[in-house]
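dude i think i finally got it to work??
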Amino acid sequence: MRVGGGGAGGRAGRQGAFVFPPDGMLSSSSSSSSPSSSMPESHKHAGGGEGEEELAFLAEEDDLRQTLRLSALEFTISLSEARAGMVKKQAGWTDIVVRGCLEAMGEFDEEAEGGLEGWLSDDPLNSSSSADTDSPPALYEQSLNRLACAMGGRAVLPPAFQYIPSMLASYDWRVHHAGLMAIATIGKVMQNELGKIVDLVTPMFSDSHPRVRDQLCTDLEEIIQKYHQQLFAVLIPTLEDPEPRIHSTLLPYLDPIVERLLKLLNPAGDPATVKRYVQEQAITTLAMVADASELTFVKHYSSIMPLLLNVLRNAEGLDYRKLRVKAMECAGLIAIAVGRDVFRPDSNTLVELLMRIQKGRSIQRIHSWGTRTASAKADVSVYEDDEEKVEEREGWETVIMDGQTLVIRTSAIEEKCQAFETLVIYCSTLGARFAPYLAQSLEVTLPALRFYFHEGVREACALLIPMLLAAGKASATLTNQMVSATFHQLISCISTEHDASFLASLYKCFNDAMRVIGGAGALPREYNEGVVDGHLHQDQAI
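look at this
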């Protein structure tokens, strides 16, 4: 099978299945298949620059041809989705669309986006490249997936596998890559054939081109789960490939892989070749392995923990923040997995490193961020009259409340909820040491009990209030004014709350807060009577 027949190079041979328009349509005579014959006279007699003009004309023609092909493709796919039953009756319809997609998926421009070197040096987790989604091969891949979903496996698999085996046997890596993309794309409709597919694709792990091996690593997750014995025999050695990008997408398991992961963390070669995102993924995988294997991980402890402590000790700066966080998580999981006796010699070192990180400027900024963001007001636009006039904007949500249409910026609300959840963590962990933030935290928490735009904010506040009172009592900084303001707000909210589920949270908050200050006897009579009146008001409302 010839893949890439639609490109400029493909016109020299027989015409591909999806070349559109056919050769000759852009010219007025049968001889116009030659570039020079279809070129305007002004281009052919332009003097010394005619070579450059001819190249420019050919490039323009190729762009036009590509645009027409993609337009025709979108039409056929859309029609297949809308009238699948009708097009199934048309002989050859599915065959030619499948073949056209497969051919175009192999038209890979390796020089785009920095070429192979650029691809290898790129971080796949933070890549801003659009080549994976907007390039012609990617668009044809998406179209093949849409066709498979619309037409079903019985219609798509026979024509697809008429070509895929020969694609995988081709000498051209781009054709290998396209064949693997096709298998991954239509995988949902070929689950009954997975065993045969595994036998077909596993030899590709020894392909000489890194893009082919990477395609296998990223697109075969479902197959991995069912055919692990066959696949891990070839997956594990792939961790030793010289291209770092391939490593980051593998999901290695248990003892046979730990040694390779350690090599990725602490390579013996040039440190300049180490990719940070590979180390991050290796640490994440080690944490998963430790969490799953528990005591069987003990034999690897002496090799791994010193590396993690070294990361926490030396990985400074914003660029290494993610690596440091992953090392903290991994060290904790490993400590739990191996048990106290094994972890004890390194426990003091780890605690000292964590305390040093805790005292850093970034953590201090988090403290400040928590109270400042928690006090932020919702970004709301109010529309009194016509609901249809409300413009839909990305990142905003429309809510109908008390006959008004409110448009709320959701990102700010999520940050506010996260801020209160952060305050809950700090207050519960620090206890009396949270006293310097007590007054400021109560000042922003009590009004937020009526923050109706996000239930998570209100629930976090109801959970936080008793903790704040407990921190104030333990540190002897709790004042009568704080207690009075807290119970006054709680009673007011209980009396007017319409949400039954949050009303239960308010009752629990009131009860927990009352216990903190010494029980019902420690409350002034007016607050005891107030909560009873609020409860009676709720009973009448029901």
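Residues 1-109+130-238 form one domain.
im so relieved honestly
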